[in-house]
Amino acid sequence: MTVEEFEAFYEQAVARLTGQLYVMLGDLHEAQDVVQEAFVKGWSRRRQLDRDGQPEAWIRTVAWRLAVSRWRFRRRTSDAWDRAGAPPPVEGPGPEYVVLIDALRDLPAQQRRSVTLHYLCDLSVEQIAGETGQSASTVKTHLVRGRVALADRLRPRNVEEDPGA
């Protein structure tokens, strides 16, 4: 089957096959997905499809098998979740976490990236420089400025500072 013949076959058969799989599966989106995937598989076997003489039957069979394979995968996944039980409840972020994220968002992008890589990813200055393409001194500058900015943003506002201290 030439490229042109396969394209013509696709144009005349895709709607019919999608309709047939829709009736079999009861899910239009799933039918569209498996028919498209079956045509992709058929593309690489178009010479074989021509020899077999029943390309539509081949596409329909492959689409059906793909759907069954997806069902089995979903069922195994569901069974695994059922065996493992529901995940434990997770508390929402505390106010200190929300304040920290807001403070990080206020930093310029390069400072935020450097601070995150250093303090959350535990990378050295040299590793950050290698990953970001910046010099080590630039990374150090970003870290110092980021710490100063975070310290200012994270300082409790309700505590009065002693001017004599």
From TrEMBL:
<dbReference type="InterPro" id="IPR039425">
    <property type="entry name" value="RNA_pol_sigma-70-like"/>
</dbReference>
<keyword id="KW-0731">Sigma factor</keyword>
<dbReference type="GO" id="GO:0006950">
    <property type="term" value="P:response to stress"/>
</dbReference>
<keyword id="KW-0804">Transcription</keyword>
<protein>
    <recommendedName>
        <fullName>RNA polymerase sigma factor</fullName>
    </recommendedName>
</protein>
<dbReference type="Pfam" id="PF04542">
    <property type="entry name" value="Sigma70_r2"/>
</dbReference>
<dbReference type="GO" id="GO:0003677">
    <property type="term" value="F:DNA binding"/>
</dbReference>
<dbReference type="GO" id="GO:0006352">
    <property type="term" value="P:DNA-templated transcription initiation"/>
</dbReference>
<dbReference type="InterPro" id="IPR014284">
    <property type="entry name" value="RNA_pol_sigma-70_dom"/>
</dbReference>
<comment type="similarity">
    <text>Belongs to the sigma-70 factor family. ECF subfamily.</text>
</comment>
<keyword id="KW-0805">Transcription regulation</keyword>
<dbReference type="InterPro" id="IPR000838">
    <property type="entry name" value="RNA_pol_sigma70_ECF_CS"/>
</dbReference>
<feature type="domain" description="RNA polymerase sigma factor 70 region 4 type 2">
    <location>
        <begin position="100"/>
        <end position="150"/>
    </location>
</feature>
<dbReference type="InterPro" id="IPR014325">
    <property type="entry name" value="RNA_pol_sigma-E_actinobac"/>
</dbReference>
<keyword id="KW-0238">DNA-binding</keyword>
<dbReference type="GO" id="GO:0016987">
    <property type="term" value="F:sigma factor activity"/>
</dbReference>
<dbReference type="InterPro" id="IPR036388">
    <property type="entry name" value="WH-like_DNA-bd_sf"/>
</dbReference>
<dbReference type="InterPro" id="IPR007627">
    <property type="entry name" value="RNA_pol_sigma70_r2"/>
</dbReference>
<feature type="domain" description="RNA polymerase sigma-70 region 2">
    <location>
        <begin position="10"/>
        <end position="77"/>
    </location>
</feature>
<dbReference type="InterPro" id="IPR013249">
    <property type="entry name" value="RNA_pol_sigma70_r4_t2"/>
</dbReference>
<dbReference type="InterPro" id="IPR013324">
    <property type="entry name" value="RNA_pol_sigma_r3/r4-like"/>
</dbReference>
<dbReference type="Pfam" id="PF08281">
    <property type="entry name" value="Sigma70_r4_2"/>
</dbReference>
<dbReference type="InterPro" id="IPR013325">
    <property type="entry name" value="RNA_pol_sigma_r2"/>
</dbReference>
